[in-house]
Design brief:
mainly alpha; Arc Repressor Mutant, subunit A; Tetracycline Repressor, domain 2; 2 domains; 11 helices; 73% helix; 0% strand; elongated
Length: 222
């Protein structure tokens, strides 16, 4: 039996051709280059001092290429936030799925502190932006809540039993305590010795274990 090619149905789009695919790939590369340039500039400068010309120059593209993707510097920063959130989500999930039980808490704290410290100017800009516009913090808050849920899930699996609401609340409080201490150090412009070293990580780890009652949970306490 001969199969007759069917007519193109209305509303069904054709797959993108090679030319469009190339344009899309170029667009992604340009977008990523601009985002990466923003983070690179923030390693040594505050966000307020960085101009769109600076970002375009470091990325190797024109100012026109920037405005083809972002309406303003604020929108560009929101894109940086989205990029960072996805990056952090992926790394946290990977760690929660792979870290041995005895190494989980110190590795989680070390990863969090390292991320905040390396991008401290970025986080300081985010905190300052939130002070002007509280709604700006919403996606970051949602990500933090998701992280809390993932940590509780992992600790519950390690404990080998359902955790009580009080135990879950202790874990939530401990996580928010860690976030709060790191954020406070960033806003107050700490010396490197106050946050970017192993002693700070060890102290935060000890505080988390104490407040969350981690050792009792892992020992099978009820």
């Amino acid at each position: 039996m001969t199969v007759t090619p069917s007519k193109k149905k209305k509303g069904v789009e054709k797959p993108p051709g090679p030319g469009l695919a190339i344009k899309q790939e170029r667009g992604r590369r340009t977008y990523q280059a601009l985002i990466s340039a923003g983070f690179k500039l923030l390693e040594r400068r505050e966000f307020e001092s960085i101009t769109i010309i600076d970002v375009s120059r470091v990325a190797g593209y024109s100012v026109g290429a920037f405005y083809a993707r972002f309406k303003s510097k604020d929108e560009f920063f929101e894109a940086m936030i989205a990029h960072h959130i996805q990056e952090r989500r992926d790394s946290r999930i990977k760690l929660l799925e792979s870290a041995p039980r005895d190494e989980l808490v110190p590795e989680l704290i070390a990863q969090l502190v390292d991320s905040y410290w390396r991008r401290r100017q970025f986080w300081r800009a985010a905190l300052m932006r939130c002070a002007r516009d509280p709604t700006f913090w919403a996606p970051i808050h949602r990500t933090a809540q998701e992280f809390v849920g993932l940590v509780i899930g992992r600790l519950q699996a390690d404990a080998g039993r359902p955790l009580t609401e009080t135990e879950c609340e202790n874990i939530r409080f401990a996580i928010h305590m860690v976030f709060g201490m790191v954020n406070n150090r960033i806003v107050n412009r700490p010396r490197p010795s106050l946050i970017g070293n192993s002693t700070f990580v060890a102290n935060l780890t000890r505080a988390f274990r104490l407040v969350s009652d981690y050792d009792r949970l892992m020992a099978g306490g009820a």
